[in-house]
């Protein structure tokens, strides 16, 4: 199962550290959003622990959203960064 991790972190240095951690495991899809296509429970728990050490729980927000695997469109798998509009 994949995960979408989005965050709103006020301090630049902490925000940069979180981004560097997430870049090791997934794709940046927006400035403060990462898609992790191969995330298992062990990885998510590790990321939660590491990111929790960095953020201020009063001012910062980090969300972990589980997402289903990419669908298949006309026989081709959709890449996480592609979107079709009909």
From TrEMBL:
Enzyme class, first EC level, given as a word: hydrolase
InterPro entries, sorted: CRISPR_associated_Cas2, Virulence_VapD/CRISPR_Cas2
Organism, scientific name: Candidatus Thermodesulfobacterium syntrophicum
Superkingdom of source: Bacteria
Function of the molecule: CRISPR (clustered regularly interspaced short palindromic repeat), is an adaptive immune system that provides protection against mobile genetic elements (viruses, transposable elements and conjugative plasmids). CRISPR clusters contain sequences complementary to antecedent mobile elements and target invading nucleic acids. CRISPR clusters are transcribed and processed into CRISPR RNA (crRNA). Functions as a ssRNA-specific endoribonuclease. Involved in the integration of spacer DNA into the CRISPR cassette.
GO BP, sorted A to Z: defense response to virus; maintenance of CRISPR repeat elements
Cofactors demanded by this protein: Mg(2+)
Binding, Mg(2+): 8
Subunit comment: Homodimer, forms a heterotetramer with a Cas1 homodimer.
Listed EC numbers: 3.1.-.-
Coiled coil: none
Family: Belongs to the CRISPR-associated endoribonuclease Cas2 protein family.
GO MF entry, a single one: hydrolase activity
Signal peptide annotation: none
Keywords assigned by UniProt, alphabetized: Antiviral defense, Endonuclease, Hydrolase, Magnesium, Metal-binding, Nuclease
Name of protein: CRISPR-associated endoribonuclease Cas2
One Pfam family hit: CRISPR_Cas2
């Amino acid at each position: 199962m994949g995960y979408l991790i989005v965050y709103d972190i006020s301090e630049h240095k902490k925000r940069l550290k979180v981004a560097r951690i997430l870049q090791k495991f997934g794709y940046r899809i927006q400035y403060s959003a990462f898609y992790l296509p191969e995330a298992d429970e062990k990885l998510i728990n590790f990321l939660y622990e590491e990111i929790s050490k960095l953020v201020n729980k009063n001012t910062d927000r980090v969300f972990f959203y589980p997402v289903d695997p990419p669908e298949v469109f006309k026989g081709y798998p959709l890449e996480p960064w592609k979107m079709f509009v009909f």
